[in-house]
Amino acid sequence: MNIGSFLLMRQEILLLAIILLLIICEIFISQNKKSSIIHLAIFLFGIHTIVGFFAIEESEIFGGMFRTNGLIHFFKNVLNIGVLIILLQSADWLQEKIVHENRGTEFFVLLFSSLLGMYFMISSGDFLMFYLGLELSMLPVAALAAYETTQRKSSEAGIKLILSSALASGVSLFGISMLYATTGSIYFNDIIEVITATNLSILGLILFFAGLGFKISLVPFHFWTADVYEGAPISIASYLSVISKGAAIFILMILLFTVLKPLMHIWENIIYVIAVATMFIGNLFALRQQNMKRFLAFSSIAQAGFILLGLIIGNQLGAATVVYFVLVYVFSNLAAFGVVQAISLRTGKEKMSDYEGLYRTNPNLSLVMMLALFSLAGIPPVAGFFGKFFLFTAAASEGYYILVFIAVVNVTISLYYYLLVVRAMFLRQSDTAIPFFKNNLYMRLGLIIAVLGILILGIYSPVYDYIYELSKNIL
Amino acid sequence: MNFSYTILIPLIPLAVFLLLGIFNKKIKPTVSGYIGVFGLLASTLLSFYTAYQYFFVIGKVDGVYQTFVEKTVWMHFTETLHIDMGILIDPISIMMLIVVSVVSLMVNIYSIGYMKGDDGCTRFFAFLGLFSFSMYGLVLATNLFQIYIFWELVGVSSYLLIGYYYTKPSAVAAAKKAFIVTRFADLGFLIGILIIGYYTGTFDFETLNNPEGSAILNWASTSFMGLSAITWALILIFIGGAGKSAMMPFHIWLPDAMEGPTPVSALIHAATMVVAGIFLVARLFPMYYFVEHGFALNIVAYVGAISSLFAAIIAITQTDIKRVLAYSTMSQLGYMMFALGVSGYDGQEGIGYMASMFHLFTHAMFKALLFLAAGSIIHAVHSNYLKDMGGLRKYMPITHITFLIAALAISGIPPFAGFWSKDEILVAAFEHNKLIYYIGVIVAGLTAFYMFRIYFGIFWGKDRKYEHTPKESPLSMTFPLMFLALISIVGGFIPFSEFITPDKAGFDAHLNYPLAAIAIGIGLTGILLAWMFYKKENNLAEKFANGFGIFYKWTCNKFYFDEFYLFVAKKIIFKRISAPIAWFDKKVVDGTMVGIGNKTVQTSEKIKGMQSGKVQDYAFAFVGGVVVLALVFIYLW
After folding, report:
1. Which helix (H) or strand (E) element contains residue B86?
2. Labelling A167: which of A286, A349, A436, B405 has CA 20 to 30 A away?
3. What average pLDDT does the structure give for chain B?
């Protein structure tokens, strides 16, 4: 192994360098210039995101523990863009924390460490690396959920997250050990050769699936979601709902489509059941939510249910539609969270009724929110429509008509509650409407990137073509 | 020579929308109306030029109208299935271009007068532009996927326009109802598209509609619950069409949609958007006709006939003139639907199809006219209700005459446009299905009756106490009325059968004198009855109503359809499903935490945050889920 093969880990190494650099810089930055930490972190991560776009060759190192290919690399870029948007949207809030409450760089260090864990998780070539990545991606987020040390709700969210995730990863590890027991290996390439459907391997599959189902917030592993989203800082809620969820879906997809493919006749039924439960529970809970964060939490549970429609068919079309949907979902959900964050930061208001008459006072924010919600609801011509349409077409192509029908019914239910917010903003008037305010540059940039993503992804078809091409590699 | 320039027809209104939408605040309300009108004027002229080129210059080869398609592959969905974007020019898309252009243009001109003084009217004209763009895109679509996108976009713009008066809670509720009901029907459309895409491997209209193509010839190769899968797909697609075209049982949104500004009702809910469902069936007509010997087409015919009768009966009892017109629209849409349903394919057999398109055209003109005239009346008396109107012929001569022309046209009195198209529909029904023919005749009589009921109610009878004397509307409002009235008079003389037939070859249509005489007779009877009941105020109508007792009450309450829906939505979905679940979330999931927390708070404030008891519940659910999955998939599956 030569030095050059380390370049396969370019993304990981660069991110690690940024983390170390930030820790060192903190020592040298004087007390009254603390806000420069934020600029520095965003600047460095911006560069990291751009560098990520350079292509990487397909290979593996460390005896197959770490591997990368076009689709994995592409997905890391998707995560990067998502994190960049989150950073931009939280800059204003961090200003407050870091400058006024005298906090250090821990926000960035923890966030980037978690992202690093995700890199390793989706690049993993065996279950050991996978598990390490999974843990590294989760533990820092639990600390971040409790970042607002002065608020009890935030601490509560942190504790709930760490306890639930400890349980989930424990169960997952137990499942992995069972898979090891039946196959005698933890390497993905070896497992494919020998795995068969025995009682032990099915139990292993289910336990393993539950662990990832927790991160994707699939029913019945979803209970933590609403509480944690509500209590945690909004940046962390959006990180959990988009980045963490996206990475978990991606690795679940890769493992199901390759390593666990011989068990497909089992897991397709599991996914069927879970998909139906997740869509209904997510949607029906979302109907009655008044708090915007809880509302988005349940909406994101429902969205996860839709994604399972692409997972269930287990082929190239399924992979392409899932990745495309996640990409669209990243932009749509971050646009929605961004607006919630902007409003919460300026006014402390997080209820749906507080949004009444928003269009009159803050037309731009309302338009962003409307686009985001239309995209989540799947209304053409914004990207969310295509994402959903492709997922449904994928599921229909393997004859899952009843599942598609259930999904489409759920889309209609979801339309109802997404319209509730649109109605509050556009069609209601209120004397206590949130007064006009101006966002700072970072926040605006964060919202603009998200909106451009929503608009362009839907119309610019080469993106899908590209993903479809890349998806060939994983099978 | 090709038709690629027609792409401009939808793009111009889109540009208007973007211009008005982006520079919303910087454009004066008065200017925005003119921008909208000029944009649509350009589109209209282009549409007429396209029609001229197509019908008279290059469209016809060897006596058959050709289909011109300009498209690009937009996306390769899989190796075999790709999605295209483009424009499709054939007789019905040209006809729709003309209908959409003329009505949109007239409504835009009219709105300049109607919306005067409304400070939000830049937004209004922007939405109108968006709507025109979507509607043009819908009629020019080359494949099912493309038509679906524009189909939803039309729904969005309709939502925005119905809810335009957002200070009115009823308008907001109506907008939401319209959107959700049609979206619900679109479920069928979407799944139908997916089934067709899967079984035929294409979304393309040209390939699908080819009578010798595999999509049509191989329908029998698949079956699902006793019918061909393709038939199921066509039925599902028709459900989508029924939603937009307000067929039973999806009609409930249309009357409520009248809460929108009246020009919007004229444009969207009378002339253009609501005929999208008819257009969709016509677009896929060869499939409907050939697959499984027209099984799906029969459903179209009966749904159309029943809706037509049902709506005509309700229209008689409504007191809000816009609602009368709404039910009338639904009834006439049913007419067009069953005309398609009873149509054949070759030559003279295709008369139903031809008549349906003919009626779509004439109806768009005179119904838009009726709505615009109603708008003019409402503008003058500031009320929608018949009880506030009377004797207006003296004050509003132009509105009066144009309304009368439209009323005569819809009642099927020659030589007005409606007579010719309605007559062809009745001929088609007579030849293919006697039951539907009789329904059609009854509806014709009812139509004449309710239309002249409101005509006499509005323009004759006693004056009411008007706050200020009603006066004729300005020229910007009366010009569209006169223009549309002109078309309502002469439109019937267009030889549609030469231009628009299913096989695109054209045939000579002749008037069937006995049937025409019956139709005229029943129309005149209806008018006569209305005259007796409503010309002068008397209690004849009330006596009559008392005689019918319960039946009158039922129609008055629209057969309790809304109540039924509310019952299902509120009582079952909300109360039985959603509310308990929300209750569970709040009381059980949340409540456990709060309950335990409240007790703990007295002993230790600090522990509460950490030991909520809730996490245990979550863990229990988590492990329980795993155990159930394991049991099911290891032992039971």
Report:
1. strand B82-89
2. A286
3. 79
